[in-house]
Design a protein that fits this description.
50% of the residues lie in helices and 15% in strands. By secondary structure, it is an alpha/beta fold. The protein folds into 2 domains: 7-198, 2-enoyl-CoA Hydratase, Chain A, domain 1 (Alpha-Beta Complex), CATH 3.90.226; 203-249, Lyase 2-enoyl-coa Hydratase, Chain  A, domain 2, CATH 1.10.12. The longest helix has 20 residues, at 76-95.
Length: 258
């Protein structure tokens, strides 16, 4: 019997659906899952039909993080290789031209929390929770802390990392990790509605805007403004801006250049 694909991918009406598909393993980010995620992200980056991505998971758990049984068996080279692969996946999400929305229905822990935090937006069910509990098993969540600290700020990130305490979806929303909290039966519909709202914009504008946002984020204010000004000037002179402005002034929907 053929094993199911660890990650499913389907593109429909401009939206790529990436689904973690190992619910019996709590969608742990074992090497095959990370390799599949990496391959799908690379394929989506080449697909002009995929203008936004929803990252979701089968079963009750979004992702329990790294597979601890796998980690326990690794020697140093394999351990380095696995964590490097994980970083490639997380950075692949950030560098992807299309916006990525995490659809979190349940628990997201350790590298699973990192995966959600690495996405551009997060929509969570009221039943979702987020944690970085590695400190409890002698493996501080150092790499998850990179994405987490850029989503919630240093103080909240350190609280989560030092205690390992799960925070609710509502607390995560207040901290800035989650954009929207909805009832479980509305999670899919609300996430799809957000993705459809986003892809109404020009895909070139979305890609340039996402890239510029992350490029300016670590800069000091003068350097960030210098970068942003240059992007604005370049964008203003491109066909997408000319069409968008003309459509607005003409009170009509824009027809984005192909």
């Amino acid at each position: 019997m053929t094993a199911p694909e660890p990650v499913l991918c389907a593109v429909d009406q401009g939206i790529a659906m990436l689904t973690l598909n190992r619910p019996e393993k709590r969608n742990a980010l074992a090497r095959p899952v990370l390799e599949a995620l990496k391959a799908h992200l690379e394929a989506i980056a080449r697909d002009p039909q995929a203008r936004a991505v929803i990252l979701r998971a089968a079963g009750p758990v979004f992702s329990s993080g790294h597979d601890l049984a796998e980690l326990a068996q690794l020697d140093e080279p394999d351990c380095r290789s696995l964590f490097a692969l994980c970083t490639e996946v997380m950075e692949g999400i950030r560098k992807l031209p299309s916006p990525v929305i995490a659809q979190v229905q349940g628990l997201a822990t350790a590298a699973g929390c990192q995966l959600a935090a690495s996405c551009d937006l997060v929509v969570a069910a009221e039943t979702a929770a987020f944690a970085t509990p590695g400190v409890k098993i002698g493996l501080f969540c150092t790499t998850p802390g990179v994405a987490l600290s850029r989503a919630v700020g240093a103080k909240k990130a350190m609280e989560m990392l030092l205690t390992g305490r799960p925070i609710s979806a509502r607390e995560a929303e207040q901290a800035g990790l989650v954009n929207r909290v909805v009832s479980g039966d509305q999670l899919e519909a609300e996430t799809l509605a957000l993705a459809r709202q986003i892809i109404a914009a020009s895909p070139r504008v979305l890609a340039a805007g996402k890239q510029a946002f992350y490029a300016q984020l670590p800069l000091d204010r003068p350097a960030a403004y210098a970068l942003a000004e240059e992007v604005m000037v370049e964008s203003c002179l491109k066909p997408d801006a000319k069409e968008g402005i003309a459509a607005f002034l003409g009170k009509r929907p824009p027809q984005w250049p192909r």
